[in-house]
Amino acid sequence: MSSEKLKEGEDYYIENGLYVFTKAYHLKRGYCCKNQCKHCPWGFKKNKKRISII
């Protein structure tokens, strides 16, 4: 991405004090960071191990 400033509501929003990047931002960036972003357009999901509590 270029050095243009991010626009609140278009590139991100704030939820519970955290910055959440939008699908539009991820598409502008052009690649997946593999951090399980909430709006990942590439659908990256880590394999979650389930733990059984007996």
Element string (H = helix, E = strand): EEH
Apparent shape: elongated
Average per-residue pLDDT, rounded, comes to: 88
Which structural class is indicated by helix and strand composition? alpha+beta
Integer-rounded radius of gyration: 14 Å
Instruction: Please count the beta strands (DSSP E, at least 2 residues each).
Output: 2
Outline the structure in words.
The chain has one helix at residues 23-29, and strands at residues 12-15, 18-21. The protein is an alpha+beta fold. A two-stranded antiparallel sheet has the order 1-2. Strand 1 and strand 2 (18-21) form a beta hairpin. The longest helix is centred in the middle third of the chain and has 7 residues, at 23-29. The chain starts with 11 loop residues before the first strand and ends in a 25-residue tail after the last helix.
In short:
This protein has 54 residues and is α+β, with helices and mostly antiparallel strands. The protein is built from one helix and two strands, in the order ββα. The protein has one helix at residues 23-29; strands spanning 12-15, 18-21.
Please specify the SSE layout and strand pairing.
Elements: E1 12-15, E2 18-21, H1 23-29
Antiparallel strand pairs: 1-2
Keywords:
two-stranded antiparallel sheet; 15% strand; alpha+beta
